[in-house]
Amino acid sequence: MSKRVINPSRNAVVALAAAGLGASMVFGGGAAFAADSKTTPVAANPAAAVAAQAETQAAQAKVAQQAKAAKAAAAKKAAAANAAKKAAAAKKAAAKKAASWVKPVGGYTLTASFNQGGSMWSHKHSGQDFAVPVGTTVKAAHSGVVVKAGPNGGGDGPAYGNAIVVKHANGQYSQYAHLSKIKVHVGQTVKTGQTIAKSGNTGNSSGPHLHFEIRTTPNYGSALNPAKFLRAEGVVI
Ligand SMILES: [Zn+2]
């Protein structure tokens, strides 16, 4: 009989062990839930969910603001680059204009050309004639400094009438003759296209026109073909 009796103390240990196991399982489940609740606050706590949502919205707003700022910075940079490009182009155009030559008069008819013979000249014709009415605006064909200006051809002789000679940076000179009015003085700096005189019919002239020379010195006798010179500079006459 005694052998068949179940030891009550042993039973208690088993029961305790079972209870312990159960408790541990419950605790484990609880822990798992707790851990899970961290990643899903919405289900766990409505207040926390609202806070989290607000935080998310704030973060999204910040990201949007940063993107907007980056976009604005990029646009500003592009505008600056564009402005720099425009400034460079304008500078280039200004430099090109400063380096260029222009016609000394507009609305003309080309008459006597360079080296043309005739009773009007003691030697061959030393310039290019532009037939224009008296009082036509005469412009500096290129920037430079006035070295001669006055009657008697500015010192070159009475045949030229009132005349101007301008020295250019390339070491050459342009001369304007038979003028009715001189608007510059010796030593004056003139810009390309600047008005320097009014055309006329003074000196040994067959009619109203501008006599135009390109010279290698300030003086008579060093003239080049002015029409050929201007065309080489890209001036259409
Ligand atoms: Zn002439």
UniProtKB/TrEMBL annotation:
<dbReference type="Pfam" id="PF01551">
    <property type="entry name" value="Peptidase_M23"/>
</dbReference>
<feature type="signal peptide">
    <location>
        <begin position="1"/>
        <end position="34"/>
    </location>
</feature>
<protein>
    <submittedName>
        <fullName>M23 family metallopeptidase</fullName>
    </submittedName>
</protein>
<dbReference type="InterPro" id="IPR011055">
    <property type="entry name" value="Dup_hybrid_motif"/>
</dbReference>
<keyword id="KW-0732">Signal</keyword>
<dbReference type="GO" id="GO:0004222">
    <property type="term" value="F:metalloendopeptidase activity"/>
</dbReference>
<dbReference type="InterPro" id="IPR016047">
    <property type="entry name" value="M23ase_b-sheet_dom"/>
</dbReference>
<dbReference type="InterPro" id="IPR050570">
    <property type="entry name" value="Cell_wall_metabolism_enzyme"/>
</dbReference>
<feature type="domain" description="M23ase beta-sheet core">
    <location>
        <begin position="124"/>
        <end position="225"/>
    </location>
</feature>
